[in-house]
Amino acid sequence: MQDLPPEDAIGLAEAAKILRVHRSQLVRWIRQGSLNAWRRRDPSAKPGKPGPVGYVVSRSEVEARWERVPNPKAEREEVKRRLREIPTKREASRGYDEAYERLKRRGLV
């Protein structure tokens, strides 16, 4: 029994656009066995020499490889915001000095 390509078969060019990689990377994954592919043959080729035209892959398998990458700029902004919330040495010492003065006025120090 021949293994037929899936219903959602797409070419390597379209798969490369989805994953934002070069087609050669897809070919590497195919040769490594980490991406299933089917050879697409030229239907007008002679019966004795059906040369391969390229590969097709399953769209669902390609989309399963797609992983959302967090936005690094948004992460940097979050870190900057958190750093602004941390008091500087001067602000921290000012708070310490104020607390010390209050305790001194009350006669506790």
Could you describe the 3D structure shown?
The chain has helices at residues 12-19, 23-32, 59-65, 72-85, 89-105, and strands at 9-11, 37-41, 52-58. The protein is α+β, with helices and mostly antiparallel strands. The protein has two domains: 9-65, no CATH class; 72-105. It has a three-stranded antiparallel beta sheet. The mean pLDDT is 82.
Which tags fit this structure?
alpha+beta, 3 strands, three-stranded antiparallel β-sheet, 109 residues
Global Rg = 31 Å
End-to-end Cα distance, whole Å, is 91 Å
Strand content: 5-15%
Bin the helical content.
Answer: 40-55%
Q: Uncertain runs with pLDDT below 50, 5 residues or more? A: none
Strand order of the largest sheet: 1-3-2
Order of helices and strands: EHHEEHHH
Number of helices: 5
| Strand-pairing-aware structural class | alpha+beta
Number of strands: 3
Shape: rod-shaped
Largest sheet: 3 strands, antiparallel
Average pLDDT works out at 82
Strand and helix layout:
Blueprint: E1 9-11, H1 12-19, H2 23-32, E2 37-41, E3 52-58, H3 59-65, H4 72-85, H5 89-105
Antiparallel strand pairs: 1-3, 2-3
Task: Summarize the structure in short.
Helix content is 51%, strand content 14%. It has 109 residues and is α+β, with helices and mostly antiparallel strands. It is rod-shaped and about 105 Å long.
